[in-house]
Amino acid sequence: MRELTCIVCPNGCLLKIDTSGGEITVTGAKCKKGNQFAIEELTAPKRTVCTTMKTVFKELPVVPVRTASEIGKEKIFEMMKIVNSITIDKKLKRGEAVIKNILDSGVDIIVTSDMTRY
Prior knowledge:
alpha+beta, 5-stranded mixed sheet, 3-stranded antiparallel sheet, 34% strand, elongated
């Protein structure tokens, strides 16, 4: 039996997950989102990643970026190698993609600050 705290909604339910018998049983969820969260967390965990990227601009040496949606945990370290190897040389607006479809995941890396203000 495993325990997780659901992070999908503000309830923060304490979920108990039983995987005995080859089936996943979730208890403690106050909504359907909790059940789905627990199953995904056990079978294919994903995360949103926030970080920074280097730029060529003196007034803005780094810029905050994040994944546009969740990416599989197993791809995070490889994704970060790519992110850390790139230097942004164009001023982008908030929400614009710096890297599209990173690692063929369907997930873009987007800027979270308006670089054109600097």
